[in-house]
Design a protein that fits this description.
The chain has four domains: 221 residues, Heat Shock Protein 90 (2-Layer Sandwich); 146 residues, Ribosomal Protein S5, domain 2 (2-Layer Sandwich); 83 residues, Rossmann fold, CATH 3.40.50; 142 residues, Up-down Bundle (Four Helix Bundle (Hemerythrin (Met), subunit A)), CATH 1.20.120. The protein is α+β, with helices and mostly antiparallel strands and 629 residues long. Helix 8 packs antiparallel against helix 9 and helix 20 packs across helix 21. The radius of gyration is 33 Å and the shape is elongated. Helix content is 37%, strand content 21%.
């Protein structure tokens, strides 16, 4: 007797959206169901390497019944047990499902959303875009468990029952909606298969009725897909449409690819590869929990896995593609993959090829590369910290905005170094949350006056990476907001100022207390009265805020308050202090000076209300002194 079960909340939401919201490109339902069938055969084929009795003539079959208005997709793949049906179809425990639903609900323009269905792992449910009812029958290959029938109208519940089915695999019968009867036409089915599934290596067949001269009818199977391993063909033989189709097939992403890269290696390690650089970042690029990582791995055209992390470093996880090895054993296991030296050779070759192609793109088509780097630069930069072997190559690829560039325009480290004046010995940088914040920093004043340029490190990852950057072309990186700062010929003047204003310096240090570790004069400033500096290895305020945003407990580092001895405000402060060291306003002056330094570097004030009150009182006192008597 059939069991009736309710869908989980997320599935009900998803089904409702599939049924009532998505109509812009319903063709993709067939792409998704055929892709699932191919995955099931991949699994069965892999199992057959160690269990030969599972081997057979692999096939995906499409059947149309115009009288009953049904379309059926069959495969002789791995199949499912009842428990697997409930786990994989009745419920969805993937965080990607929730993310997909949130995106659907948030976006008004749903033109490209169907293209993303496969990316979220919810492809089976696309069947309800065209079907009033879906019936799935499946039997697990190599198992004595009975076959299972799953049936639903997409209205919140499904039926589950055992059925008679002698052959392993899965068949999905769709009872088509009236406005979806076009999907029973052979020309339409052929068009969809050719566009989306032509490169699936198993034959996708469909019965075709031919009328003979004697008026009798003959039914034959017509193969709809080419089954060509595109990565084994020469680039000159592949059309743009074929590239686009294959990219859509392996990426599960509706965007365009930027560049196709062919590789063929012979000798110590033999393999062929076809890799794609994408144009736009997928939604989950920075969401590791729901992102597939790695390339598809084949061994002598036998599919092994579509997520071989060992083939490519994590910082190149945006690259899609296929690697087909001639050296690995067909019965390769996950443990063997993790330890196999052939994979290390392939990984090194693939990584080197991708970085080389990116360098060519940067040198030959800067605008295109700049657009690419805007999408993927945050991820690519990770390699500076994680891939010591290729760190210098990656440094050649990174781009930064600088003090001397207009907003949005970026230059490379090579361009920065080539433009350095002869007397400049280090690469200067400043880090912060956005350009507007760092651009207003008083710490830039000296460098601006000298005509030096300063890199703006405004990606969240930038300052963390500086722990690994050290040098570029034998020039050290130096933060302009950290540590001591020396200007040739300024030592005597600074020493004189420190002695001249010793009382004021001591007063500021005592008044500000734990807010600062030191108060001193500096040649760093030419226009502003003061700024806050971080000691050598201490975390900058920007890094502290990033760690806090990640809910990490870190000690707050004390800052150094640097003063400009030539600024009128500092001189006036010193004059007021020397006249009467016990004036109650002096403490307010000190705190306002400190808060002003926080504001100019873009840091939040610890007590904005107190700052506003102190400024108001100072203004009132100043106005009172000027009021006519």
């Amino acid at each position: 007797m059939a069991q009736v079960k309710e869908f989980k909340t997320e599935v009900r939401q998803l089904l409702n959206l599939m049924i009532h919201s998505l109509y812009s490109n319903r063709d993709i339902f067939l792409r998704e169901l055929v892709a699932n069938a191919a995955d099931a055969i991949d699994k069965a084929r892999f199992e057959s390497l160690t269990t030969p009795e599972l081997a057979q003539e692999w096939q995906i079959r499409l059947e149309v019944d115009k009288e009953n208005k049904t379309l059926t997709i069959c495969d002789n793949g791995i199949g499912m047990t009842e428990e697997e049906v409930v786990e994989n179809i009745g419920t969805i425990a993937k965080s990607g499902t929730k993310a997909f639903i949130q995106m659907l609900e948030a976006r008004k323009d749903q033109e490209n959303i169907p293209e993303l269905i496969g990316q979220f792992g919810v492809g089976f449910y696309s069947a309800f875009m065209v079907a009033n009812e879906v019936e799935l029958r499946t039997k697990k290959a190599g198992s004595d468990a009975p076959a299972v029938c799953w049936k639903s109208k997409g209205e919140g519940e499904y039926e589950l029952d055992t059925v008679e089915k002698t052959t392993p695999g899965t068949e999905i019968k769709l009872k088509l909606k009236e406005d979806a009867e076009l999907y029973m036409e052979s020309w339409k089915i052929s068009e969809i298969i050719h566009r989306y599934s032509d490169f699936i290596e198993y034959p996708i067949v469909m019965p075709e009725v031919k009328t003979n001269e004697d008026k009798t009818e003959t039914v034959t199977d017509r193969v709809l897909n080419s089954q060509k391993a595109i990565w084994l063909r020469k680039a000159s033989e592949i059309t743009d449409d074929e590239y686009k189709s294959f990219y859509g097939h392996i990426s599960n992403y509706g965007g365009e690819y930027l560049k196709a890269i062919h590789m063929s290696a012979e000798g110590v390690s033999e393999f062929k590869a076809l890799l794609f650089l994408p144009k736009q970042a997928p939604f989950n690029l920075l969401m590791p929990d729901i992102q597939k990582k790695g390339l598809q791995l084949y061994v002598r055209r036998v599919f092994i896995t579509d997520e071989c992390k060992e083939l490519i470093p994590d910082y190149l996880r945006f690259v899609n593609g296929v690697v087909d090895s001639s050296d690995l054993p067909l019965n390769v296991s996950r443990e063997i993959l993790q330890e196999n030296p052939h994979l290390d050779k392939i990984r090194n070759a693939v990584t080197g090829k991708i970085l080389s192609e990116l360098k060519k793109l940067k040198e030959n088509d800067r605008d295109t590369y700049a657009a690419f780097f805007k999408e993927f630069g945050k991820v690519l930069k990770e390699g500076i910290h994680t891939d010591f072997t290729n760190a210098e190559k990656i440094k050649d690829l990174v781009l930064y905005e600088t003090m001397n560039t207009e907003a949005g325009k970026q230059i490379s480290l090579e361009e920065y170094v080539n433009a350095m004046p002869e007397e400049q010995k280090e690469i200067y940088y400043i880090s912060g949350e956005k350009r507007e914040a760092v651009e207003a920093s008083p710490a830039l004043e000296y460098f601006r006056s000298k005509g030096y340029d300063v890199l703006f490190m405004i990606d969240p990852i930038d300052e963390w990476l500086m722990q690994s950057m050290f040098q570029y072309r034998k020039k050290n990186f130096k933060s302009i907001t950290k540590g001591d700062f020396e200007v040739e010929g300024s030592a005597d003047a600074l020493k004189e100022a420190q002695e001249k204003f010793a009382g004021l310096v001591e007063f500021l240090k005592n008044t500000l207390g734990d807010k600062v570790s030191e108060v001193r004069f500096s040649a760093r400033l030419t226009e502003s009265p003061c700024c806050l500096i971080t000691e050598g290895n201490a975390l900058s305020p920007h890094m502290e805020r990033l760690f806090k945003a990640m809910h990490q407990e870190i000690p707050v580092s004390k800052r150094i308050l640097e003063l400009n001895a030539k600024h009128p405000l500092v001189e006036a402060f010193a004059a007021v202090y020397s006249k009467d060291e016990k004036q109650p306003e002096l403490a307010a002056y000190a705190n306002v000076l400190y808060d002003q330094a926080l504001l100019t570097e873009g840091s939040p004030l610890p007590d904005p209300a107190a700052f506003a009150k102190q400024v108001s009182e100072l203004l009132l006192n100043a106005m009172a002194e000027r009021r006519p008597r």
